[in-house]
Write a structure and sequence with these properties.
The chain is an alpha/beta fold. The chain contains 17 helices and 20 strands. The strands form 3 sheets. Strands 7-8-6-9-10-11-12-13-14 form a 9-stranded mixed β-sheet. α10 links the parallel β10 and β11.
Length: 510
């Protein structure tokens, strides 16, 4: 809960959670909660620890440890485990001596701790809005198959220039990350920026229940997590819940260049702002005269309602980021920021989250383009389209890991990726994982040299010998496939200034 400006009582949290309170050795009101955590290692004095049963670990196994760390309370669904932890602590106490450290930790019992976390965040936000009164607390969010986190970063910077702003760390965009972000807000917060992702049809509907929105942006409807939706229309239906979740006075910010996003206009309860990176004159916000400079940063005339067009160089590379910048400008306009002020600010806004079109140096004037956080066919196409401008006259090397959760389109999307690698002028493609085989086959058919690695460890072991000083290397892939590990390895090589061919037979460098 941010800097702890608001100290919530355990009774209050239990009420919002819809839980049953089992008090520790002290009265609940004696231990105010100033932070909510799901990682037992971050639990300390004043913390509410949310015990989540995950695929690899069960937070209930750490209840005694978080109690000893001084946590004020724990939110649990396994009452037996909670009572066992209390008994363990009680057993550590001396009969006539002081209570063992942590014995005072209160327990809130609920059926589902993740759902209860969402209810707590909803209660917290509703109370903050009531306290804000006329000063206001603007809550804005974005969704889409591509560009969510970059748009979140840009929006945060635009709003933070005007007042205290809370935004997610990395991609905290699901049923756990979003409530934790909401709970970082406090009485000083003027703007709350949220990112909303979806792996299933009702995910965003659940998120807007937690945080009803003053403004919502829909970026692009594409093929992310297709396996969870069945079709691109299923993706669109799921993403549309962000517009349905607007408050009556809320503003929808929609991509006019994407027909499925633009069609959500009819779902908006009120004002709609449209944006177009292609310069469509019907759009409220648009970019015209777009060109890329030598660093692949877009330079464009930005048209905003209420301001004269202004030529701006964006602070992040890639032509695809023009749309993300326009979406962030639309959200900031909806939050009440003056258009001319935004045009003053957008040029200095850049990347904040790792592994997203981060450009760094490699030996021999080489260049690493690290876009390895995640991937689907739409983001893969956008990233590869930026490679020629970013590489310049350098030899082009592409490293991709298989794209996960694509469902029945996986083989076709990977084959398309291989063709896009060739279109980008790549000399060498390194693939990671068996699922990337169709990409390897398609690229090889187009004359690209291909090296297939079974996993990220093998790719890391081989990549240095495949590179020559001065190469431009683009790394892209799904997070779970490990492409980011290759990018981190290459970034470390670049930071050290090492020559990847040192100590090797010259025949290994290509």
């Amino acid at each position: 809960m941010g800097a702890g400006v608001i100290a919530r009582t355990i009774d209050e949290l239990a009420s919002w959670a819809g839980g049953r309170l089992i008090a520790g050795g002290a009265a609940p009101s004696a231990a105010p909660v100033t932070a909510v955590v799901t990682d037992s290692r971050k639990a300390g004095p004043g913390a509410l620890f949310v015990a989540i049963k995950g695929e690899r670990a069960d937070g209930h196994a750490y209840l005694a440890a978080v109690a000893r760390a001084g946590a004020a309370a724990a939110l649990v669904s396994d009452e037996e485990a909670a009572r066992a932890a209390q008994a363990e602590l009680a057993g550590a106490s001396q009969p006539d001596g002081p209570a063992a450290p942590g014995a005072a930790m209160a327990i809130i019992v609920v059926d589902d701790t993740v759902a209860a976390l969402g209810r707590i965040a909803r209660g917290h936000l509703a109370d903050l809005r009531q306290r804000a009164g006329e000063r206001g607390l603007a809550v804005v969010a974005m969704t889409g198959s591509v560009g969510k986190t970059t748009t979140k970063d840009l929006t945060r910077q635009l709003l933070a220039a005007q007042g205290p702003t809370i935004a997610p760390v990395a991609s905290f965009n699901n049923e756990i990350g979003l409530p934790l972000t909401v709970l970082e807000a406090d009485e000083s917060t003027r703007y709350l920026v949220l990112e909303m992702g979806a792996s299933g049809p009702d995910d965003i509907a659940d998120l807007v229940e937690i945080a009803p929105l003053d403004a919502a942006a829909v970026l692009m409807i594409g093929h992310a997590h297709m396996g969870g939706f069945g079709s691109i229309d299923g993706v669109a239906a799921a993403k549309s819940h962000i517009v349905r979740g607007l408050l009556p006075h809320g503003t929808a910010v929609l991509n006019l260049d994407d027909e499925r996003a633009a069609a959500m206009r009819d779902l908006a309860p009120g004002r709609v702002l449209t944006f177009s990176a292609s310069g469509d004159e019907r759009a409220d916000l648009r970019a015209t005269g777009v060109e890329l400079d030598e660093a692949a940063h877009a330079i464009a005339d930005i048209h905003l309602p209420g301001a004269q067009p202004r030529r701006v160089r964006l602070g992040l590379p890639g032509a695809h980021n023009v749309a993300n910048a326009l979406a962030s400008l639309g959200l900031a306009l909806a939050a009440g920021i003056d258009a001319d002020v935004l045009l003053d600010t957008i040029a200095s806004a850049g990347l904040e989250s790792p592994h997203r079109m981060a450009v760094s140096d490699l030996p021999g004037s080489g260049r690493l383009i690290d876009d390895s956080y995640n991937a689907n066919i739409d983001s893969m196409a956008a990233s590869l389209a930026s490679l020629p401008a970013l590489a310049g006259d350098r030899r082009r090397v592409v490293v991709i890991s298989e794209m996960l959760e694509l469902g029945e389109t996986s083989a076709a999307d990977h084959a398309t990726t291989g063709a896009l690698v060739a279109d980008a002028g790549a000399s060498l493609l390194v693939t990671i994982g068996a699922g990337a085989a169709p990409a390897a086959q398609a690229a090889r058919h187009r004359g690209v040299e291909v090296v297939e690695a079974p996993d990220a460890d093998d790719a890391i072991a081989r990549i240095d010998s495949l590179l020559a000083p001065g190469d431009a290397v683009l790394v892209k892939g799904s997070h779970g496939s490990g492409a980011w590990r290759v990018a981190d390895h290459l970034a470390a090589v670049g930071a050290a200034g090492a020559d990847p061919t040192d100590g090797r037979d010259g025949k290994d460098a290509r």
